[in-house]
Amino acid sequence: MRIGILGTGTVGRTLAAKLADTGHEVVIGTRDVEKTLGNNETDAMGNPPFRNWHAQHVGVKLGTFAEAASFGEVLINATSGSASLVALRAAGEENIDGKILMDISNPLDFSRGMPPSLTVCNTDSLAEQIQRVYSGVKVVKTLNTVTARLMVEPRQLADGDHHVFVSGNDAAARAQVAGYLKDWFGWREVIDLGDITTARGVEMYLPLWLRLWGATQTPVLNIKVVQ
Amino acid sequence: MRIGILGTGTVGRTLAAKLADTGHEVVIGTRDVEKTLGNNETDAMGNPPFRNWHAQHVGVKLGTFAEAASFGEVLINATSGSASLVALRAAGEENIDGKILMDISNPLDFSRGMPPSLTVCNTDSLAEQIQRVYSGVKVVKTLNTVTARLMVEPRQLADGDHHVFVSGNDAAARAQVAGYLKDWFGWREVIDLGDITTARGVEMYLPLWLRLWGATQTPVLNIKVVQ
Questions:
Q1: Which residues lie below 8 Å from residue A225, measured CB to CB, with a gap of 6+?
Q2: What's B145's DSSP letter?
Q3: Averaged pLDDT score across all residues of chain B
Q4: Quick one: residue B29, left, alpha or beta (phi over 0 = left, psi -120 to 50 = alpha)?
Q5: Can you tell me the mean pLDDT for A18-24?
Q6: Are B88 and B134 in contact (CB under 8 A)?
Q7: What is the DSSP letter of A14?
Q8: Least CB-packed of A114, A167, B49, B126 within 10 Å?
Q9: What is the ipTM metric for this complex?
Q10: β-pairing, A138-142 with A100-103?
Q11: 3-class SS of residue A100
Q12: Does B172 touch chain A (CB under 8 A)?
């Protein structure tokens, strides 16, 4: 499948590598291709320069946000929450309209110290903000509740006996994304939460996730819903 | 042990019944004893009148918030979030100072429709508000992440293979509450999240919990942290 990924940070790279390695065609999009390729520095999150990573993943093509969006049959928003709406504007409505956009971003606010708070929550969510601006896009919030490594390798933890969620207004798109999560990455169970307002739940889970990371000293954690 | 419970709703009743049935001395506190006993109506949550419940739980004494607080060696805040600070004021600082207060309340805002949003979140929490007002109280946020029946009978679900949390500034008080949860109710594992600011995490989990209830059609659910 042709997949367009927006964002060249840890999440974008991890998804791109996994998808390219398993036979998909992937274009990963960035704001400024020259700048992304020319950067020689490790970023604030400890990621090596993109070109170092890219040299080991030559199957992944780098393009602008618009090129990645135009290329993908399915799109993934893997930008940071604060950059998501800007990235989508750069991608261009004509390149994303009518497509499924898997929204993995978290609206984290690092300006008030650690752990971060959220830039939007409670009566709204980043996923809803995106859906309101791009009403023709099938936004499906998912995967934002786990660290990048677990997104693509859920079975490395408890043989995959834990959950991931989908939220979105289009039931068929939610089902399609649930299928991708299982087929692409091996998720065993995907919980369909319902419409896009349920994204508030998974975005507002982040503060607990961050504290669990703090308490347990590893981000390789997830929750299993027990009933 | 002598336990003072603030609040005569489902949570307060469920805790009081369980604790009295297992040999503890319990006073359950209300704003107006005469009114609580005189009420003949089922409440908005479908609870029968208090006196009907009380007739079946004669071991539980009913008193004012101040009487319950004064009586208890350990206190439990089981009022609704919107009533918690008012109830604690009525309880009287002299009756709660220096004691452990297990805070089970959730700052739910039903004024904007269902499911409820939160009255406080993100950079603050109800538990922190309580702790700020009553600096001499050892506030330990706990149990607010599960429905009342599960609080006191965790093993009815997956033989107790799921988690509950404690948040509070006093490490010894957190450990003591974790012990109570195990001894009183049979919780198998209690995760110590750390200081009172971690209560934001468990309070902000509520929107996900409410959506999981919606998706799965039962409130008898909990999460297991998988690592």
A1: A163, A191, B212, B216, B221, B222, B223
A2: T
A3: 97
A4: beta
A5: 98
A6: yes
A7: H
A8: A114
A9: 0.96
A10: parallel
A11: strand
A12: no
How confident is the model at residue B115, as a pLDDT?
92
- Ordered domains of chain A (ranges, CATH): 2-216 (3.40.50.720)
CA distance B222 to B161: 9
Q: What does the pLDDT read at residue A43? A: 83
Considering chain A, what percentage of its residues have pLDDT values greater than 90? Answer: 96
Mean pLDDT of all residues in A104-127:
95
Which parts of chain B sit beneath pLDDT 70? Answer: none
Q: Using CA atoms, how far apart are residues A126 and A133, in angstroms rounded to an integer?
A: 11
Selecting from A193, A215, A216 the residue whose C-beta is nearest the C-beta of B211 gives A193
The answer to whether B194 faces chain A, any CB pair under 8 Å, is yes
Q: CB contact, 8 Å: B122 with chain A?
A: yes
pLDDT at residue A175 greater than cutoff 90: yes
Mark yes or no for CB contact A227/B220 under 8 Å.
yes
Q: Which of residues 45-74 of B touch A (CB under 8 A)?
A: none
Task: Name the E strands within chain A.
Answer: 2-6, 25-30, 61-64, 74-77, 100-103, 108-109, 117-118, 138-142, 163-167, 189-194, 222-226
Q: Which pLDDT score, from 0 to 100, does residue B113 have?
A: 87
Scanning every residue of chain A, which has its alpha carbon at the shortest distance from the alpha carbon of B192? A215
Q: Give CA–CA dist A147/A160, Å, rounded.
A: 14
Chain A within 8 Å of B214 (Cβ-Cβ)?
A: yes
The per-residue pLDDT for A47 is 85
Chain A residues with beta carbon closer than 8 angstroms to that of B193: 211-212, 214-215
**Whole-number pLDDT of residue A91:** 98
Cβ–Cβ below 8 Å for B208 and A207:
no
Average of pLDDT values for A146-167? 98
Alpha-carbon gap, residue B143 to B168, rounded angstroms: 13
> Could you tell me the two tokens for A110?
């690092």
Q: Where does the pLDDT of residue A113 fall: very low under 50, low under 70, confident under 90, or very high at 90 and above? A: confident
Question: A139: which 2 tokens?
Answer: 């936004």
A208 at B interface, C-beta within 8 A: yes
The answer to whether residue A193 neighbours chain B at the CB level (below 8 Å) is: yes
In one-letter notation, the amino acid at residue A176 is Q
Cα–chain center distance at A37? 22
B92 close contact with A: CB closer than 8 A: no
Q: Tell me, yes or no, if B171 comes closer than 8 A to chain A by beta carbon.
A: no
Give the dihedral sign, CA A173/A195/A122/A188.
negative
Distance from CA of A211 to the nearest CA of B (A): 6
- A and B: number of Cβ contacts within 8 A: 112
